[in-house]
Design goal:
It contains 4 helices and 10 strands. It is of the alpha+beta class.
Length: about 240
């Protein structure tokens, strides 16, 4: 089944992202400076080589074009459509969703809806506002940042959320102990140079168990969610 990319939108300012984006039917993203849009082909220069050669790509190989001003031009299967005949639309958050398992396709965050909790993966997806691949929690129709995933756990899988909370508390305690030792160390080096190394060593040793425990709770957080909550009926707190 062919993967279809719908509308794309990169919300970066023109000063930092003054270029066009060509989306091909085989899901390639070409950053370009388009010089001409004809009935049968688009001519462009590579975005990082404005003085370079002009490339030509048939309209039949293109799904859509996102212009630098945010306008989106979509191309149907008919390759002989002119730009005026081709419908265009300003991208909206709801139009950014893509039905694809390809990790390079754009995903967008969405409100959860369903009767059972989705299975989540932590993988790289293309983020429109960043213009790059970033790791996100992907499940169902949602793509969540770590902070958003925590809120999701708090609402729908509180047992796993408690594990995450423990990880945060252990990390905060361990890092506070270590930071205190690092702050005291230079002061003692002036007044008690023989005691200073011992204090730094003790603070490091005391912080280590807390940091290791924090790592234990946070490293398998996703596995615990998928094992205990994914596929279960929704019971929001």
């Amino acid at each position: 089944m062919r993967t279809i990319l719908t509308f794309l939108f990169l919300s970066l300012s023109l000063a930092t992202f003054a270029q066009d984006l060509i989306v091909t039917r085989d899901n390639k993203l070409i950053e370009a400076n388009i010089t001409e849009v004809a009935n049968d082909a688009i001519r462009y220069k590579k975005a990082n080589s404005t003085d370079g050669p002009v490339f030509v790509i048939p309209v039949s190989d293109i799904t859509s074009v996102v212009y630098r001003d945010g306008e989106v031009q979509s191309f149907g299967m008919e390759a002989n459509k002119t730009p005026s005949q081709t419908p265009s639309a300003q991208a909206t958050p709801s139009s950014l969703a893509a039905e694809s398992a390809n990790e390079k396709i754009i995903y967008t965050a969405a409100e959860f809806s369903g009767d059972t909790l989705p299975h989540f993966e932590y993988k790289k997806v293309f983020i429109p506002e960043k213009g790059k691949m970033k790791k996100r929690f992907v499940g169902g129709n949602m793509v969540l940042k770590p902070s958003e995933f925590e809120k999701f756990l708090d609402a729908y899988c509180h047992g796993v959320y408690q594990r995450n909370l423990k990880a945060s508390l252990f990390y905060l305690t361990g890092s506070t102990i270590l930071f205190s030792g690092l702050v005291i160390f230079p002061i003692l080096m002036i007044e008690e140079p023989l005691v200073a190394p011992a204090v730094l060593g003790i603070s490091s040793m005391l912080s280590l168990p807390f940091l290791i425990t924090s790592l234990y709770y946070s490293s398998n957080l996703l596995e615990h969610y998928n094992a205990s909550c994914a596929g279960t009926p929704v019971r929001k707190r």
